[in-house]
Specification:
Elements lengths: L7 H9 L2 H4 L2 H9 L3 H13 L7 H13 L3 H13 L7 H12 L4 H13 L7 H13 L3 H13 L7 H14 L6 H15 L4 H17 L4
């Protein structure tokens, strides 16, 4: 069972759909043209969503790239996603990997996840599933739901790590728990489906242990 990740651009758009309507687009554009990286990134998201401006993936990529070149971590992840899927720019998985690397170097959670996906499938980089799991784990520690899902699947399938159904259950259960408030129904279905399939192959004792590990991880990561 292989899970396709959602890119950071998609995730970000979920939260900024009404961004441009809440801001003066002309003021935002003025700041972007003056070199404000945050404004450039926000303008890119507005163009991607068609919020306050006509939807234009070419313009989205243009402004996202400008912000990324200034070292904006979220924008670096964003332009990586656009190169990965050919949104507004020619598809170039090697370029996607390079931008994800830059974003991950700044400890941006979704960049770890997206870069891990490329290593998992050998897209734009040499396939290295052990490296993929390392990156997924870093993303999961930063709260990436996609990373939690992919870590769980990796442990379940023994892809890059030894098969460990209990550890797989832990991460899938965490993904299920944290995705409850997400509006991404496709993610919820994938998590629920994976967890249901895994449970069929586990003993009651294994499930109890998986739930316990999940609770312990959640308790250790709650804000103090």
């Amino acid at each position: 069972m292989k899970i396709r990740l959602f890119t950071a651009l998609v995730w970000a758009t979920l939260f900024v759909t009404n961004l441009a309507s809440a801001l003066d687009v002309n003021e935002l554009r003025s700041k972007a043209e003056q070199g404000d990286a945050a404004a450039q990134y926000e303008l890119a998201l507005a163009y991607d969503a068609g919020s306050g401006v006509q939807k234009d993936l070419g313009q989205a990529a243009n402004w996202c790239l400008k912000a990324a070149e200034q070292g904006h971590a979220a924008a670096q992840n964003c332009i990586g996603s656009m190169y990965q899927y050919g949104d507004g720019v020619p598809m170039d998985e090697a370029a996607a990997a390079a931008w994800y690397e830059k974003s991950a170097a700044q400890d941006y959670g979704e960049a770890y996840t997206n870069l891990g996906y490329l290593y998992d499938l050998g897209k734009g980089v040499s396939q290295d599933r052990a490296r993929a799991v390392e990156l997924y784990l870093k993303g999961a520690e930063k709260g990436s739901l996609n990373a939690m899902l992919n870590v769980g699947v990796s442990y379940w399938q023994g892809a890059g790590v030894a098969v460990d159904r209990v550890e797989a259950y832990k991460w899938l259960d965490l993904a299920r728990f944290y995705s409850q408030r997400s509006e991404n129904m496709q993610l919820k279905w994938r998590v629920r489906g994976a967890l249901d399939e895994l449970q069929k192959k586990m003993s009651k004792a294994e499930i109890r242990e998986g739930k316990q590990r999940s609770k312990e991880w959640d308790a250790s990561h709650r804000p103090r």
